[in-house]
Design goal:
Blueprint: H1 7-12, H2 15-28, E1 30-38, E2 47-55, E3 60-69, E4 74-84, E5 93-98, E6 106-110
Antiparallel strand pairs: 1-2, 2-3, 3-4, 5-6
């Protein structure tokens, strides 16, 4: 799967520091919510559960997604990423939205108007 950039290195530097941060986040995060999701491990029709955990409460927090694996009676780290909760607003124009082979939408963005706000 393609990568979306190296956001962890921008915040924390080397791999050892990043690993320590993710371990800390798994151990010390608070529960945000739990949702039903597809079976991402075995790619079956079985419904699993994804849990979102969050570490921090400032303008930059770190979210952790943990997914159940029912046959193994376990949970595994699915994803973890920093989240900017506030900051500069940017004006963008969405030129097109296209199907992406990995199941999420992709947009071709260019810096122009109209202004897009929450």
């Amino acid at each position: 799967m393609p990568r979306h950039g190296n956001h962890w290195t921008a915040l924390y530097g080397n791999d050892e520091d990043i690993e320590a941060v993710i371990v800390r986040n798994l151990q010390e995060s608070k529960l945000i919510d739990t949702f039903s999701c597809i079976d991402v491990t075995h790619e079956t029709e079985r419904t699993e559960e994804v849990t979102c955990l969050r570490w921090g409460n400032g303008s930059i927090v770190e979210d952790v997604l943990v997914v159940t694996d029912t046959p193994e009676q376990s949970r595994f780290l699915y994803s973890s990423y920093p989240v900017l909760r506030d900051g500069i607003r940017h004006t963008v124009t969405v030129d097109s939205v296209e199907a992406w082979e990995y199941g999420t939408g992709g947009a071709d963005l260019s810096p122009a108007s109209p202004d897009i706000r929450d």
